Amino acid sequence: MSLDIFKERGTPLERQMFTWKDIVGEPYSKLDDDAFTRVRQILMHGVEQEACRFKHFAARFNPELRLPLARIRRVEHHQATMINWLMPGDQSTLETTIGFEQVAIEVTAHVAAVEPDPYMARVYRFGLLEDFDHLYRYAALMDRLCGKDANNILQSYTDVMPGRPTSVEHRAPEDDLRQHYEKTRAAPLTKIHAALITGSEWQTRDYYLTVGPTFADPIARQLYAEIASIEEQHVTQYEALSDPSETWLEKWLVQEATEVYAYWSCYSQESNPRIKQIWERFLSYELEHLRLVRELMQTLEGRDPAELLPAEFPDPLSFTSHREFVRETLAAEVDLRARGYDIVPLSQDSPASIAYRAQLNAKGSPSEVVAAGYQWNPGTELTDPRVREAAFASLAREEAAQ
Amino acid sequence: MNKNDRPTDTGINRTGIALSPLDGPLTADGARSAPPSSAGSWQDAAMVRLQYATEAGEFGHMPPPLTLRGMAKTAKELLKGTKANVLLDKLGERLAFERTGVRLYDSLIVKFEATGSWEGGPSLEELVAFRSDEARHFDVMVQALVALGADPTAMTPSADIIAVESLGVLQVISDPRTGLAHALHAQQIAELADVAGWDLLASLAETLGHSELAAECRRALAQENLHAASVSRWLKAHAEVAARGELEHAVAS
């Protein structure tokens, strides 16, 4: 299956319309739908949020683009809303969080596996092992705070075990910057990957910052605060991958191509027929958005956008379990650290980051505390009789003894 | 067949590990073979919670008293020398819960009209009557607070807490994908809490010498006992009818 983005016709912009009934449709089933339906829903909301965010910034710097930006952005705002409203009301904030981390793991693993630029691929593998660890910490929180099993959400596609410990992921800002691709030499897929993962991570950062304080439990509040900080680092890292010398229109073109590619990937693999129709509809919307940006580029920059885009997309994003890839990466690269623009062995860890994380963790590490001695077990750790029948010890007495 | 029956049909629920015969064992074995990144247990987090609990302030307080002018003389006398706020806080709690109770029954009535009932289940008239009870109880609390010189629009600490407690009840009842039986199961939590709340308030009012208020509370308690017993009876009937596979003959609204 392939997609020729120059030949496929999209829905004309004036016919890209919504009603409130349309936007607020029936959500997916948390119990019955495949976990990758939720993965696609979360990913595409992140992609649309990034599309809107980019267009707002573009409007601030480009008065001549404000009207086309506003027209397309309005549609994308409603696309984002409709996609986000596919989340069901019986899915708790923590359950959604588990879904967010599954997105970060499985989508980043795919990107890392197929990224043509070896440096970029290494950066994605580096970030992957950090999100992988976040899943383990949140699963421990879900188990120990709520008595619930994260695998009800993950459906056994994704491992729950430590990655690069979150407590050592904290880095000084200078160690989160990365080299960017060169816009004239980079493959279109490299540009698309950078836009895709940046949007996904930014959404995760925003989500954790929004929902973290809705928890009453201090450990949950601490853990969301801690992991939101890593997501901020990830946004710093991934947005650094894009060439800053790209023009606003070049970046806009990459953004629309990313949306086309992502919807096409969703459409080609969706198992829920009702949601598949949404991906098909929005793929058609995005093909038109892309055509309009190509037109703008020809008019305003006098350039042929065909030279920047692939004639055909490569294989779609693979919405499947990447267990083996993740395990191999974990075994080989868990001890790596970042120093400046480089990913380095543990022995060369950055003194600036070592000092930074020592200060942040000085009064305890939420991610270590929440998962102290934790091993996920099907049905929660309480299925282990040693945990279930552990002798009661008075905390107050223990604290006094300390 | 309607939503009162559908959830117990066999479908494609994918949440259990047994549904993933290949991936499930891989996930379980992987987790078992990966040691935790730090030693300890769930008690490490409990220690942090203990520390927060000892350091934390309160989540809120009662409003300052309004002027005693205009308050009935007897009420003024009764409030003297007592911790008046204990009673006012509990009155505020009942007021808030009954006001929410009206809205819960509004949603239950929509649910009834959407999905119908079953043999031994509620009738529309019963749901409407129970809604009226909740509305009346709300008004009784408004009048009681006014008579004691308090502001019935204030959210007291106990009113706040009981609203947080009820979040899940509202979430289940207002979800269009749940049937009347699921919604009533949620409402059962509200009704049982209602019974306990009125019982406590009646005792407290009596202890503090507010005999008229105590009598009002006991009247409300009797009605809430009827609500709780009715919801329990409807749910038992639903389980039996469903287990016999007879819900197809559900009573239409």
Summarize the structure.
The complex is a heterodimer of chains A (402) and B (253). With 402 residues, chain A is mainly alpha-helical.
Explain this structure.
The complex is a heterodimer of chains A (402) and B (253). Chain A contains 15 helices and 2 strands. Chain A has helices spanning 20-23, 35-61, 66-84, 93-114, 118-146, 151-154, 188-211, 218-239, 248-269, 273-301, 323-333, 351-360, 366-370, 385-388, 395-401, and strands at residues 337-339, 342-344. With 253 residues, chain B is an all-alpha fold. Chain B has a single domain (6-249), classed as Up-down Bundle (Ferritin), CATH 1.20.1260.10. In chain B, 65% of the residues lie in helices and 0% in strands. Chain B contains 9 helices and no strands. In chain B, helix 4 runs antiparallel to helix 5 (124-147). The radius of gyration of chain B is 24 Å and the shape is flat. Chain B starts with 22 loop residues before the first helix and ends in a 10-residue tail after the last helix. Chain A: This is Ferritin-like domain-containing protein. Chain A: It comes from Nannocystis pusilla.
Given as residue ranges, the uncertain stretches of chain A (5+ residues, pLDDT < 50) are none
CATH superfamily of chain B: Ferritin, core subunit, four-helix bundle
Q: Tally of extended strands of chain B?
A: 0
Class computed from helices, strands and strand pairing of chain A: mainly alpha
- How far apart are the first and last residues' alpha carbons of chain A, in Å? 64 Å
Shape by Cα distribution of chain A: globular
Distance between the termini of chain B: 14 Å
Number of helices of chain B: 9
What is the radius of gyration of chain A? 22 Å
Greatest interface by residues involved: A-B, 54 and 41 residues
List the total number of helices of chain A: 15
SS content category of chain B? mainly alpha
Mean pLDDT of chain B: 91
Radius of gyration of chain B: 24 Å
Portion in strands of chain B: under 5%
Q: Please give the oligomerization state of what you see.
A: heterodimer
What is the helix content of chain A?
55-70%
What do we call the CATH topology of chain B? Ferritin
Assess the beta-strand content of chain A as a share of residues.
under 5%
What's the CATH C level of chain B?
Mainly Alpha
